[in-house]
Write a structure and sequence with these properties.
This protein is an all-alpha fold. The chain has six helices and no strands. Helix 2 runs antiparallel to helix 3 and helix 4 runs antiparallel to helix 5.
């Protein structure tokens, strides 16, 4: 039979995953709001970061903070999940570190907008997270089948992580050598990359939320 402590841990982890998914929905809503307000940056040809520049830039700045918070919450909740399962979270450390870097970087991006003297810092941070995070998510996806309670999400997580890596390679490794395509569609491909990274976090979080009853080992439930 599960103990009160076990139930408390499950409830806490469940609330964390609810927060993660709720904040991701909020992210999409705020991003859409920022997109329709002046100065009407093109989502096809211009970077998402430009939404933080202009008279309504504070909305995207808040959204960067939001992205940082839900990413770090996911990392913490995932570690707690593995702890409840009696698994060593160190087996997933590189992926967790990558998502944590993504989260911390989002907090930093809020303070270093893509304009003026902070543009170079903003760009460097972007290149780092766009390279590291897709690879980290792919690393975690490949290992999900090692834990029975996580195996069910492996296939879709692997597909999304694979797409994230593809978009990362294309955006950073191919697009710079296609100047005409880059000038017209760089914003679109950047959004594909960002969306795939966030979708991975959201879908993995939703799966764990829906399967929280499986988190305790069979021997703990007797």
């Amino acid at each position: 039979m599960s103990t009160p402590t076990d139930n408390s841990k499950q409830s806490t982890v469940r609330r964390l995953f609810v927060m993660v998914d709720s904040l991701i929905i909020l992210y999409v809503v705020l991003d859409a709001i920022a997109q329709v307000l002046p100065p009407h940056y093109s989502p096809i040809s211009q970077a998402e970061s430009l939404l933080a520049v202009g008279p309504y830039g504070y909305i995207m700045t808040v959204n960067f903070l939001n992205r940082g918070v839900f990413s770090l919450l996911f990392v913490y909740a995932f570690v707690q999940t593995l702890t409840m399962l009696g698994e060593n979270w160190g087996n997933y450390k590189w992926g967790l570190y990558a998502i944590a870097i993504w989260g911390v970087a989002a907090l930093l991006l809020a303070g270093f907008p893509a304009t003026g003297r902070t543009l170079e810092i903003h760009t460097i941070i972007g290149i780092i997270i766009f390279t590291v995070t897709p690879l980290g998510e792919l690393s975690m996806s490949l290992k999900l089948s090692r834990v029975k309670a996580l195996a069910g999400v492996r296939k879709i997580a692997l597909v999304i992580a694979g797409l994230a890596v593809f978009f990362m390679l294309f955006y950073l490794g191919v697009l710079p050598f296609l100047p005409h395509l880059k000038s017209d569609y760089s914003g679109l491909f950047e959004r594909f990359l960002i969306s795939s990274v966030i979708a991975w976090v959201g879908i993995t979080s939703l799966y764990l939320l829906r399967h929280v009853n499986l988190l305790l080992k069979p021997e703990q439930s007797r």
